[in-house]
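Please review this pair:
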Amino acid sequence: MNRSLRASYQRGRSLPLIDLAHGDASRPVRADTPPVHEQLRIVALTLFVEHGFQAVSLRQLAMALGMQAGSLYNHMESKQILLFELIEEHETDLLDLLEADDPCQADGLTRLRSYVDLHIRYNLIHQHRLVLARRESRCLSAEQRASIEATRQAHVDHLEKILRQIPSPAAAEQSSAVARSLMSILEDAHTWWSPDDAPAVEGFIAVVTQMAVGGLAGPSAERSLPLARSA
């Protein structure tokens, strides 16, 4: 379990999907995270997304927090490490959620539907974090990028296990390609709707699930999926 939100997670309860940029008080805060550092992360996330990591200076971060630029180093090691923390947290929190809420004892189709549902809803709520992770990863060091890539590979591995559970002679050969294609689609989904547009989100979840199943199990399994999740 986790490096961040999991400290307060209880099995049987869903993780609170709170966007760090909104500064919601109900979001769990790690016991070893000073309040000023948490405020710094909120401000940094907002500014990095709005202006770009390279364009945001230490002076801007400090001004947004009402302190001198030199004082920032009392609350962070460097701007790049702060960026890494934000991106790493996004990737690990999503992975932890997908693993914790995976109905492991269910059939492959049910598990896939749950995976797609969780992934889309998480990214709709955490759009700032997703945008930062996709746009600014290039600014990380080689070692930091390798760490993020290892977590993303764990995402692929988890999804592949689900896909292989779907009855299909082609599952073993195609699961990796389908997993990576599906993840690319899911990561773009947040740009198409508002989180409040429930019917559109429900329809898209059903369509994406059908696409993934169709790529592995053929038309018969694809037609077996409902077009929308029942209430």
